[in-house]
Amino acid sequence: MSETNNLRVDGRKNDQLRDVKISRQYTKYAEGSVLIETGDTKVICTASVEESVPPFLRGQNTGWLTAEYSLLPRSTHSRTIREVARGRLSGRTQEIQRLIGRSLRAVVDLGKLGERTIWVDCDVIQADGGTRTASITGAYVALVDAINYLIEEGVLEESPLNSFMAATSVGVVDGEMLLDLCYEEDFQAQVDMNIVMTEDGRVIEIQGTAEKFPFSRDQMNTLMDLAEKGIRELVSFQKKSLGIEE
Amino acid sequence: MSETNNLRVDGRKNDQLRDVKISRQYTKYAEGSVLIETGDTKVICTASVEESVPPFLRGQNTGWLTAEYSLLPRSTHSRTIREVARGRLSGRTQEIQRLIGRSLRAVVDLGKLGERTIWVDCDVIQADGGTRTASITGAYVALVDAINYLIEEGVLEESPLNSFMAATSVGVVDGEMLLDLCYEEDFQAQVDMNIVMTEDGRVIEIQGTAEKFPFSRDQMNTLMDLAEKGIRELVSFQKKSLGIEE
Amino acid sequence: MSETNNLRVDGRKNDQLRDVKISRQYTKYAEGSVLIETGDTKVICTASVEESVPPFLRGQNTGWLTAEYSLLPRSTHSRTIREVARGRLSGRTQEIQRLIGRSLRAVVDLGKLGERTIWVDCDVIQADGGTRTASITGAYVALVDAINYLIEEGVLEESPLNSFMAATSVGVVDGEMLLDLCYEEDFQAQVDMNIVMTEDGRVIEIQGTAEKFPFSRDQMNTLMDLAEKGIRELVSFQKKSLGIEE
Amino acid sequence: MSETNNLRVDGRKNDQLRDVKISRQYTKYAEGSVLIETGDTKVICTASVEESVPPFLRGQNTGWLTAEYSLLPRSTHSRTIREVARGRLSGRTQEIQRLIGRSLRAVVDLGKLGERTIWVDCDVIQADGGTRTASITGAYVALVDAINYLIEEGVLEESPLNSFMAATSVGVVDGEMLLDLCYEEDFQAQVDMNIVMTEDGRVIEIQGTAEKFPFSRDQMNTLMDLAEKGIRELVSFQKKSLGIEE
Amino acid sequence: MSETNNLRVDGRKNDQLRDVKISRQYTKYAEGSVLIETGDTKVICTASVEESVPPFLRGQNTGWLTAEYSLLPRSTHSRTIREVARGRLSGRTQEIQRLIGRSLRAVVDLGKLGERTIWVDCDVIQADGGTRTASITGAYVALVDAINYLIEEGVLEESPLNSFMAATSVGVVDGEMLLDLCYEEDFQAQVDMNIVMTEDGRVIEIQGTAEKFPFSRDQMNTLMDLAEKGIRELVSFQKKSLGIEE
Amino acid sequence: MSETNNLRVDGRKNDQLRDVKISRQYTKYAEGSVLIETGDTKVICTASVEESVPPFLRGQNTGWLTAEYSLLPRSTHSRTIREVARGRLSGRTQEIQRLIGRSLRAVVDLGKLGERTIWVDCDVIQADGGTRTASITGAYVALVDAINYLIEEGVLEESPLNSFMAATSVGVVDGEMLLDLCYEEDFQAQVDMNIVMTEDGRVIEIQGTAEKFPFSRDQMNTLMDLAEKGIRELVSFQKKSLGIEE
Predict the structure, then answer these.
(1) Residue F8 maps to a domain
(2) CB A177, CB A226: distance < 8 Å
(3) Where does phosphate bind (chains A, B, C, D, E, F) (predicted)?
(4) Cβ atoms within 10 Å of F212's Cβ, excluding its own
(5) What is d(CA B160, CA B166) in angstroms, rounded to the nearest whole number?
(6) Measured between CB atoms, which of B28, B82, B119 is closest to A40?
């Protein structure tokens, strides 16, 4: 980890997460409903249970989980046009919601879920970088609540979840390797990487992009170390909010 | 006002509003940003300033104000499909956002606003009836904050707002005339009316619909009285949240 | 009623309707087909019977009625772009067709209609103000014809219609309260109100909008009186065209 | 011409057109506005002048003419869904409106029109076969009226039209070669051909389709003869409606 | 045939086709897959078998054949925008794919095909005029291969094809009547005609358009003669590629 | 590298690429046009120069490069529906074309390109796994040709390209780590990773996904080694096809 001084715009150390706050039961209808705040990034994550599966899975005795993601128009510095006004999802939104869904499915045994769908909705009410990773981290807690609801209702006998997981971003800014980029850092990053991991450090997703400066294998390893540290901490926050002792 | 006993599902009197809470500066980027709660209905209302006007107004030395409205998918009892997934706004959404924009424009002197647009966004995070009227009441406060911001910045010399205003619903349920319907009441209403008024009781918008039972002129007058009472109270809440003494 | 002189652009008194002409059997395929002319506003209204209901009503032993509205491109002063060219309905069109459908359903006992749908189509071939209210007034006659057809064919035993109804506009122009606004009046109106009533003066729909000048409760009452007078006359025209003696 | 007896469903001879009626000044705003009736097929054709050209023609000192076509929902036996409800034009509609526009442009000297566009709208209010050819025949008259309007207004000095023209259909039904097919004939036709010609018998467009039975060159020639006869008669009707003596 | 000298841009005689090359089994998954080259025009034509029919044909013991057509973006001189980027098919594309499907269906006995659909896809990888006629000529060979596959697999007992067929273009350029127009000729043509014929010279489709200069019946006959000559030659190429001796 | 026997479905060793063939000048209009074949995967890659930039870059003295990707309908085992038929791009397509564009831009100095856009089109004519990585590898060669064209034409003085680059996939199948997955392997993979690198082994993009089995950091390193080996070989093929000696 680089031994730098207080270079970061918000005074953090290079390997330091922003403050994390997870509020459960944030709205009243969803089976799982979480407000996650990582610094100034705030996302409402809900998990909704629907007693059916999409056509391509019917009759196969398996469940499904899918995710949607959206920015409120003024979650951003300048107002973002609603996607419905263009009539279609942007490529960015599609990538993000596919990432969220795929990452969560990696820790769900869909066969144990039964023929039902869990809809995960991540609606960003304030964006300051890292909205997709905050969405994943918060959505996992909403998912735990929705699963627990199904168990309490006697719908499920055991949990189909097989690991805790969380996500964060890492990147290279002015040659420094940083954990959990805020918007200003993200904007200047030469390398930008989003990583989803299980609590024991196995990789679920890695998406790394070099904006102009391709990166070396060594840099990549350092970034992975940073991400692993951050994700272990995020899982602790998840457990604490769920009242689980470690 | 009818002298009934505690018929209402939530124990209110017929002419009683639900609890109102208005939180300003709810998110950090918008010039005006309000969370309004009326009972279990919760709406984020932002007012965003854009330094241009739509093509049809260019060069006419006048401003514009437009509104958009959306339900978060799990703001409702069962999950509502995002409109972008259908590729177009529903008729209901279009009606509501046209109503919000038209109502607010009625109290803004657009000529005094200069060649700029105010975007009002109303995003419902929890819906329990009366989302469109809560949106108008909350959006007016966000609008005041955005106008004050423009005055403080020296962009505007005087406020283009010429009256306080608010909105509420009234209706007939089981023959009873009620103020501020919650979802369960709204669902059963024989008559459903949304009214937008200035603080001195003049009508900006009235939209009344008979679901199966056309209503008499007498009933209509009683409903107008109820609305007027509610709107005066709502304007008091707006002023209190803005720190304005009455 | 105001005692004014010939202020109105077309020489009418303030409380005077434009000339009304209702031509039945206007086209040959529809079960009900009417050309309604109110002054220079001309609308083809058809009522078409379809022997099924939308999915949300299947198996519930009830019928449905829905309406669509469109302007021919050159029904207007300058050519209006077809909505299909934009790929979607405008908010104005959606509002109008929802209004027409809702208003007509208020006088139909859908349970008596059986599991069938009546499609009401209102296509404006010439527009001079009041196209939505002319559509409702004309569509009601087409609906009567379609219902009579079903009775004659032995499909229905009794009529599901429980009242005559019609619609008109009222408004405030230059301080004058006027009945049945033509385009030029509508364009200048400070207040614009569309009212749908049964023949005995009960309100089905009221939609009133203040363009800049919120209106008082007194003004509203006067406008309601004007509308009531006009609607009684319109119902007379409907009955005469149907050969019903009053 | 085949010497058959009264085989045709409506009693016509094989080489006989349906009754034709052309009503000019049908609506009041368009520069040219015609109702054409050919038997039970009825089409409103308007020609609207716009003082600009599409981007690809700007600054080239030439004009443009374009056409749009639509069926009213209940112009047909069973109700046709509006195209805007699907969000896009059908292939059939696109073909027809391209045909109408191309055919009319063939007799207009666009250079003489100046930098303006003529929008031709053909809205079918009752369809009984041959709607596209009736549209062309009627639209030509509306176009003459719009051009004459421009000449009377002093906008144009001379007419850019260089020939009368009209269109009809021919086809093979049960081995008989028929002129001007009504819907029932069209439905059964083995060969279906639409032909647009100038008044002196030159071909502007020919579109022939064999539904299952490819046709010989001899049959094609006979069909062309029939079409030529019909089109000469249609041009006479056009001239008569325009008060032009032949 | 006109006795002209080497007027044509590529040195051909007026009644001469461009070089034709038909490559079968061009890609490995489709039941029929052909690359057809006519001069510099190159089209991949595939025929795909699907074991179902569209809803309007279900249970009627008949098959279906439908066609789609597309240009690769840089098949053209300057890059053509993908149609998906506009969200809808152009009128030109719809016309072409309807023409291809209709033409091929004219030689298929759909009843003999059984309840299955053949999808014909024509993707132009290089365009130098005549892409729609090359598509039809090539698609017919792909269709023969797909049918033979179904016979070899024992799915069909006999071929539902009842004739060879092919298509070409003819036109008038600088007063010369030409067979098989390349792009440069097509661009300058006064008359442009696409003709689809069976191998014995019967007409399946004729689509002729006068760009500014309506053409006489005599010209039309000469053009038909040219097309007939070309189509007989194209059928020979088809047979040769299929290893069928004439 | 794992020392396995001929486990792979096509007889390759674990660290062996499929046969690669790169054909330049594949079509005649594009400034760069390549057919790349990697095993049975075949993609036409073109690079087209347009003398303008998108609005967000105008006047900034910089160029742009953007990519589009599409599957021909029968490039796949069973026919894939065209995206235009759904009216919008799938999430998968958007992800792929964003990846291609971003990867190529990482090696282009856009400032040196001048105010012009390079459109990269990757159209898959046969798909057997690895279509996105083959697209990138092939598109790079088309890009080199387009840049060389601009230099030869005197439009550019020096190349804005700063490194060779290529892409491949790696994955874990039945516990084996494999280079360059074909469709059958990709379908069964527990881990699937696409990697884009410069010729000297720096990472431009990494996208790794665990389908059910999150992977360890060790596995990830081995996969990176495999990818690096493959990409060096692919760059050799690119250079050979361009006639560049190493």
Answers:
(1) no
(2) yes
(3) 92, 130-132
(4) 14
(5) 17
(6) B28
What is the rounded distance in angstroms from the CA atom of residue C103 to the CA atom of residue C166?
A: 9
Q: Tally the domains of chain B.
A: 1
Q: What is the mean pLDDT of chain A?
A: 95
| Residues C53-97 pLDDT 10s | 999 999 999 999 999 999 999 999 999 999 999 889 999 999 999
Domain contains E142: yes
* Interfacial residues of D (vs C; Cβ cutoff 8 Å): 27-30, 33, 40, 42, 44, 46, 48, 50, 68, 70, 72-77, 79, 82-85, 87-89, 119, 121, 123, 125-126
Chain A contact partners (≥3 CB pairs within 8 A): B, F
Rg (CA), chain E: 18
Give the count of beta carbons closer than 10 Å to the beta carbon of residue A90. 15
Which regions of chain F are under pLDDT 50? 1-2
Q: For residue E58, what are its two tokens?
A: 């279900």
* Candidates B76, B88, B126; nearest CB to A87: B88
Of B89, B106, B216, the CB nearest to C210: B106
Residue where the block lists tokens 């790696």: F170
Residues of chain B below pLDDT 50: 1-2
- Token pair for residue E11? 């040195």
- Residue at A31: amino acid letter: E
Chains contacting E with at least 3 CB pairs below 8 Å?
D, F
Instruction: Report yes or no on C14 lying in a domain.
Output: no
Option in F28, F75, F82 nearest E68 (CB): F82
Give the pLDDT confidence score for residue D2 in this predicted structure: 45
Cα distance between residue B29 and residue A102, in whole Å: 31
Cα distance between residue C132 and residue C167, in whole Å: 8
Amino acid A6: pLDDT: 58
C-beta separation of E206 from D203 below 8 A: no
F partners (3+ CB pairs within 8 A) are A, E
Q: Per the domain annotation, does C13 fall within a domain?
A: no
- Find residue A209's DSSP bridge partners: A192, F205
The answer to whether the Cβ–Cβ distance between A88 and B83 falls below 8 Å is no
Burial pattern F152-179, b for ≥16 Cβ within 10 A else e, equals eeeebeeebbebbbbbbbbbbbeeebbb
What domain range includes position C47? 20-242
Q: How far is F125 from chain E, CA to nearest CA, in Å?
A: 8
Spatial separation of the C-alpha atoms in residues F227 and F206, rounded to whole Å: 10
Torsion of CA F161, F163, F164, F166, to 10 degrees: -100
State the nearest Cα–Cα gap between A90 and chain F, in angstroms.
9
**The CATH number of the domain where E143 resides is what?**
3.30.230.70
Cβ F68 vs Cβ F123: under 8 Å: no
Q: Do B210 and C217 touch (CB under 8 A)?
A: no
